[in-house]
């Protein structure tokens, strides 16, 4: 039996202890394992995740200030199973990616606006939000030598350092997969990158998809309008949002492209249409930031 099998077996036993149904492994990203037992999910966090920041984040989402904004755990305890940190949560209904017209963009925007408005002093001390650090980490996973990987590295090298901006509670890795419906209401999930940082990074992924032509303009404007109407300040109260969103959106484009290229390399196949669009978008970032073209990328 492999270490992965042992881990899943322990997660199943933990899930059944809290839950009320047979445990099943749910599909998720490769570095995370999630087991569901009825109304409960048990999550094994990424290998190498640090305990102290996760404990602080677990305490934060149990605070009244984040109630009905971020999902509260069943227990704040962080368990160690083998070499992985494990937490226990209520199970919810995720966004149905097969029904894009029903995607809760406005609900997401309102939740993010509420999160960004929470005074940091009402929460336990939090680490930095995870957005900026994820970009270089994802690019570092690329194999050397591929033309697409070179474009991604050049795009990363062309990006200027993020300027100091407002520091508020921020999700750190928001996308539609970070939402579930509980008791009929949408709520944000996943504390792994929750922290204090520039809230513009929480809007960066839909902004990046829109800029690449992969998100319909009408959907983007619905999302941005709902965010601003709920008091969200990450893109300014009105006017041109790109003054605040341009750099985070470009950085997240680099991150998404690195993940896509790494997946294609891992599977030993050519880039698909969406992956090629992302690479082309990175090429445009390089071209538009032409002053950086001579930056070494090896």
Describe this structure in words.
The structure is a single chain. With 298 residues, the chain is of the alpha+beta class. It folds into two domains: 3-90, 2-Layer Sandwich (Phosphorylase Kinase, domain 1); 100-292, Aminoglycoside phosphotransferase (APH), C-terminal lobe (Aminoglycoside 3'-phosphotransferase, Chain: A, domain 2), CATH 3.90.1200. The chain is 42% helix and 13% strand. The strands form three sheets. The protein has a five-stranded antiparallel beta sheet, with helices on one face. Strands 6-8-9 form a three-stranded antiparallel beta sheet, with helices on one face. A two-stranded antiparallel ribbon has the order 7-10. A hairpin with a 2-residue loop joins strand 4 (79-81) and strand 5 (84-90). Helix 5 crosses helix 9, helix 6 packs across helix 8 and helix 8 packs across helix 9. The model has no long low-confidence stretch (mean pLDDT 92).
Describe the structure concisely.
This protein has 9 helices and 10 strands.
CATH topology of the largest domain: Aminoglycoside 3'-phosphotransferase, Chain: A, domain 2
**Domains, number:** 2
Q: From the alpha carbons, calculate the radius of gyration and give it in angstroms.
A: 19 Å
Write down how many β-strands occur, each being a DSSP E stretch of 2 or more residues: 10
Give the CATH architecture of the largest domain.
Alpha-Beta Complex
For the sheet with most strands, the description reads: 5 strands, antiparallel
Write the layout of secondary structure elements.
Blueprint (H helix, E strand, L loop, with lengths): L2 H16 L4 E4 L6 E5 L2 E5 L6 H11 L17 E3 L2 E7 L2 E2 L10 H13 L13 H9 L7 H12 L9 E3 L8 E4 L2 E4 L6 E3 L6 H8 L5 H13 L12 H26 L5 H16 L10
Antiparallel strand pairs: 1-2, 2-3, 3-5, 4-5, 6-8, 7-10, 8-9
Helix pairs in contact: 3-7, 4-8, 5-8, 5-9, 6-8, 8-9
